[in-house]
Design goal:
This protein is mainly β. The chain has one domain (1-7, 21-52). The protein has strands at 22-25, 45-48. A two-stranded parallel ribbon has the order 1-2.
Amino acid sequence: MLSDKLLLTVRLPNCSGKQPIRVAVDSKLRTSPLYRLYDTSIAPSTFTTSTI
C-alpha cells in the first residue's frame, strides 16, 4: 500500500453508483496523510491505528 498510493475505489467503466466504504488499518503509522486514500471527498473512509 505504501508504494502504490491506493485509492481503494471502484473504477469500472459505466459504474456511477456509490463508492464502497474504504477501510485502512495501519498498525505502524506509516501511511502519509498526503495520500489520496485520506481524501474523503472521493469515497467514504474509515481509518484505524493500533498497537499490540
